[in-house]
Amino acid sequence: DAGVIQSPRHEVTEMGQEVTLRCKPISGHNSLFWYRQTMMRGLELLIYFNNNVPIDDSGMPEDRFSAKMPNASFSTLKIQPSEPRDSAVYFCASSRQGWNTEAFFGQGTRLTVV
Amino acid sequence: DAKTTQPTSMDCAEGRAANLPCNHSTISGNEYVYWYRQIHSQGPQYIIHGLKNNETNEMASLIITEDRKSSTLILPHATLRDTAVYYCIVRVNGGSQGNLIFGKGTKLSVKP
After folding, report:
1. Cβ(B62)–Cβ(B49) below 8 Å
2. Which among B79, B107, B75, B81 is positioned nearest to B15, based on CA atoms?
3. pLDDT tens digits, residue range A49-74?
4. What is the pLDDT of residues B66-111, one digit of tens each?
5. Is the Cβ pair B46, A102 closer than 8 Å?
6. Whole-number Å distance between alpha carbons of B21 and B74
7. A70 CB near a chain B CB, below 8 Å?
8. Which of B17, B23, B73, B107 is deepest in the core (most CB within 10 A)?
């Protein structure tokens, strides 16, 4: 398996533009996590899906952020409109549901909003 | 999820054992202890996890105290490539309580 695949790896966009980050989880995994990492705040959990259903989105910063998981093999994190303070590395991770599960992380998307 | 407390940083000599402590005094009976690490510019990597018994795999050993209020991750022969931030996490597996919440972690520096 190729692991968790995120795209793009790097994104530079202007303030006010819409940004869409993509994630393909490992086949057979039915839990998916989106994280944001900055130097100041560390790794923050944004949203957690289980069987394509959002379980906990309390970490989503504000209404500008939205995440979807239309099927078991694809998820998106959208920021509209983007702001410079959204600049961070965004990670996606997936795991099998149930007991004794480990999460596998993608390589991340480095977002820069100028 | 219960909170964890880890030292901010630690140093270890190459080839020696690295012992990374973690306090989780409010851990619940159904919460597991997980360890992840993050090497610079990469996504976090799973290392090991356990409930109450000590665990060992090809990467590390996990020692959990009998009262489960603390644990130690042991890298038996640290190498320069083990330099990373190590995160200790407690979580309930699966379902609506399966969130994986990261703290600040311990920055381990392995020195020649």
Report:
1. yes
2. B79
3. 989 999 889 899 889 999 999 999 99
4. 999 999 999 999 999 999 999 999 887 655 556 778 889 999 999 9
5. yes
6. 9
7. no
8. B73
From B87, B49, B50, select the one nearest B66 (Cα to Cα). B50
Residue of A nearest to B93 (CA): A99
Residues in A closer than 8 angstroms to B91, CB to CB, are none
DSSP chain B: ----B--SEEEEETTS-EEEEEE-TT--TTPEEEEEEE-TTS--EEEEEESSS-EE-SS-EEEE-TTSSEEEEEETT--GGG-EEEEEEEE--SGGG--------EEEEEE-
Confirm or reject contact between B8 and chain A (CB < 8 A).
no
Question: Residue length, chain B?
Answer: 112
Nearest to A61 by CA among A44, A75, A39: A44
Beta bridge partners of B37: B45, B86
